[in-house]
Design a protein that fits this description.
Blueprint lengths: L1 E9 L7 H18 L4 E9 L2 E9 L6 E9 H4 E2 L2 E2 L1 H10 L7 E5 L2 E10 L4 H14 L21 E8 L2 E2 L3 E2 L2 E2 L3 E3 L7 E3 L6 H7 L6 H15 L4 E2 L3 H8 L6 E6 L9 H10 L4 E5 L2 E10 L6 H26 L15 E3 L3 E2 H19 L3 H8 L9 H4 L10 H9 L4 H11 L7 H20 L13 H15 L5 H12 L5 H20 L3 H8 L6 H17 L1 H18 L16 H22 L3 H9 L2 H10 L7 H21 L11
Helix pairs in contact: 1-4, 8-9, 10-11, 10-15, 10-17, 11-14, 11-15, 13-14, 14-15, 15-16, 15-17, 16-18, 18-19, 19-20, 20-21, 21-25, 22-23, 22-24, 22-25
């Protein structure tokens, strides 16, 4: 058992792919070791922009031998007149054993001869030579490339070297035009080629050559650097940005730069975006206000900061000057005047221009405002502005600022003298933060619902995780908004209204199914509520997303707190449902036909709880509703224990079925419990 290291050296990997490639290399290589029956312990992985590697503290040199049984020819062919035939001898020779070691086995109705052979474990040299190509090709990446004319193995970036050491020995194998060896490369600027004497020395020698190979340790080092350099300022917090920076450097060092204060006249997010999108700088705040200073993580030593920082500042100044130019030009006229220019921007080739979309969203948003009691004047004005930044230089031409779509509309609305309520509604539509206003929430929902219905009407379908147009994301944003703001409204009616505005005669059913099936997934993923409980609530006839969420959350909590009782309720409703499946149309319950005292008692209690149950559900008082339903449980149990439903007398039978239907309909008002899965013990 010796230490082992395998490093794949590449040209710079995109930062957001590094962690995935590192993890896949580990998982796929461990799978190979286990398939080949190696003993191993102490697995670590490394990654930098220029390498991915796996290190194993202790690895056997070869896999374990294994004894395998093989079945040969039928017995009547292998042995004749008590003697082994040539067929048996050839089979034994192939296994590497004598014919005396053969034995009989039965397979079905036939007897064969069989023998055992030793399958020797392969060495790490043999395994890598045979399986390295598959190891590389099995790593999934978003985009790949080929860099040699004879190559048919794609990878994210050209592979430039391979290091493979077992203890002090090179594990020799070839891949494309490369031969494995003991060399790697240190920091691109501060080091060069390094010879690694043994696997055990790999990490330390990289450190000595200004490479921190452990991704997590490198991140922690970067954060310490930021903390040391920030002084009294507060750095901009963005985990995505920090992760990206960590994937761009091998030896992170922090330096502080600054820019002219004139650029602080721009909206904060414009300045921050100019810093982070292209330069990956970290903005600094003082008492909550953006300053003209920033932190940059350099892939170099701080002693060179005097030479490096002026260049960093110069590049940023060019970006900020572009932004300032866009802002000055764009705000020469009010944001509302950009509305007509949306007519020249195609939203969807089958669904019209962005102007067409805005007009539809305005109509839908005003309809929702009427239903929800929101300020219609704010909704209307905001809906005529919220997309107008698409026609501005900042969004149309400033490619690094496209992520600020919507935010720029709100800032330009502010600069144009629009009311604070309109400005906030436009900002709320972006969902960059939790919406503050009902009007902004309505705009956010209307815009996304218009997108969902419109795109689905073209025949587009979400298939698993394949959703290039982001329909599922838009729908999840609607759910987020509704639940965070506690908005009660009829989603099915909103879908119908959207179809009407589009002028479509499509049935609402398919759109409803799409929305509510995703709600089941959403509430399970985001809220931890079981999908079948959500399904049961939806099938109670609700189409109010917030009420579905609230009721499903209550039932899921009730299930967790009262698992046995909940299971008994579900079992009873499933039993009732199964009996009613083949019943067909049933008359109303006739009291005079209730002969058994247990069915009369059940009928009386059902009548007693019906009205208070409706009232409790209307008030959204789910604990009270459940309390009322539980009052029927003992009566239902007694009914099933003592009353035979499927009697020969058709009139009595149908009356008992009608009673069951009546009782089940009360539970169905809360949720269709018969749709809930009972967990196997």
């Amino acid at each position: 058992m010796k230490p082992f290291v395998l490093e794949v050296g590449v040209e710079e990997i995109p930062p957001f792919e590094i962690e995935s490639i590192e993890n896949q290399l580990r998982d796929n290589f461990i799978e190979i070791l286990e398939e080949e029956r190696f003993d191993y312990s102490g697995v670590r992985t490394y990654s930098t922009p220029r390498r991915v590697a796996i290190f194993i503290e202790s690895l056997s040199e070869r896999g374990k031998d294994v004894e395998k049984e093989e079945v040969g020819p039928p017995l009547e062919i292998a042995r004749k007149d008590g003697e082994w035939t040539r067929a048996a001898e050839g089979f034994a020779r192939r296994l590497g054993i004598s014919v005396d070691e053969l034995y009989e086995v039965r397979r079905g109705n036939k007897v064969y001869v069989a023998g055992k052979r030793i399958q020797k474990g392969r060495t790490i040299d043999e395994v890598l030579q045979d399986r390295f190509e598959k190891l590389i090709s099995s790593i999934r990446q978003k985009k790949t490339m080929r860099w040699l004319p004879f190559q048919d193995i794609p990878f994210i970036r050209p592979i430039r070297w391979i290091l493979a050491l077992y203890g002090e020995r090179v594990v020799p194998f070839t891949f494309l035009n490369l031969q494995s060896g003991r060399h790697t490369y240190g920091h691109r600027l501060l080091s060069g080629r390094i010879e690694i004497p043994s696997a055990q020395e790999y990490e330390n020698l990289l450190r000595e050559n200004y490479v921190i190979p452990d991704r997590v340790e490198r991140y922690e080092m970067m954060m310490r650097e930021i903390e040391e350099e920030r002084g009294e300022f507060e750095p901009y917090r963005d985990e995505g940005l920090y992760t990206e920076i960590n994937g761009l450097v091998e030896y992170p060092q922090a330096v502080v730069g600054q820019f002219d204060e004139i650029y602080l006249e721009l909206p904060d997010r414009v300045v921050i975006t100019a810093m982070k999108v292209h330069q990956r700088y970290i903005a600094l705040f003082e008492n909550g206000k953006l300053t003209n200073k920033f932190i940059a993580i350099i892939n170099n030593l701080k002693k060179y900061r005097d030479n490096i920082v002026p260049g960093l500042e110069k590049v940023l100044r060019a970006r900020l000057e572009d932004a300032r130019f866009y802002y000055v030009q764009d705000t020469k006229k009010p944001i509302i005047e950009y509305l007509d220019e949306l007519k020249d921007i195609v939203w969807h080739t089958s669904l019209g221009s962005m102007y067409d979309k805005v007009m539809r969203v305005k109509e839908l948003a005003l309809w929702m405002a009427e239903k929800l009691g929101a300020r219609k004047d704010v909704v209307e004005r905001a809906s005529l502005i919220y997309r107008n930044d698409l026609a501005t230089l900042m969004i149309r031409d400033g490619k690094e600022f496209t992520e600020l779509e919507g935010y720029i509309a709100s800032e330009y609305a502010r600069a144009s003298g629009e009311s604070p309520e309109v400005v906030q509604a436009i900002y709320d539509y972006t969902l960059m933060d939790k919406p503050e206003t009902l009007e902004g929430s309505i705009l956010a929902i209307a815009d996304r619902l218009d997108t969902i219905v419109g795109i689905l009407s073209t025949g587009y379908r979400v298939k698993g995780s394949y959703d290039p147009l982001g329909i599922k994301k838009a729908l999840y944003e609607i759910f987020d908004t509704i639940i965070s703001k506690g908005i009660h409204f009829d989603m099915e009616a909103a879908i119908k209204k959207t179809l009407e505005i589009y002028g479509l005669r499509d049935s609402v059913d398919e759109y409803r199914k799409f929305v509510f099936s995703r709600l089941e997934n959403y509430l399970e993923e985001k809220e931890g509520i079981r999908w079948d409980i959500v399904d049961a609530v939806i099938n109670s006839g609700l189409s109010d997303v917030y009420e579905i969420y609230s009721r499903a959350r209550f039932l899921d909590e009730f299930r967790k707190e009262n698992p046995q009782l909940f299971e008994e309720i579900v079992t009873g409703q499933k039993r009732a449902g199964n009996i009613l499946k083949k019943a067909g149309p049933l008359p109303e319950v006739r009291e005079e036909l209730l002969k058994d005292p247990h069915e009369r008692a059940l009928y009386g209690d059902a009548l007693r709880v019906k009205e208070p149950l409706e009232e409790a559900l209307f008030r959204k008082d789910y604990p009270k509703a459940m309390e009322l339903l539980l009052q029927l449980k003992s009566r239902i149990d007694a009914f099933f224990d003592n009353v035979f439903v499927m009697v020969d007398d058709e009139e009595i039978r149908n009356n008992r079925l009608a009673l069951l239907k009546m009782v089940k309909s009360l539970f169905d008002r809360m949720a269709d419990f018969s749709r809930i899965q009972i967990e196997k013990k």
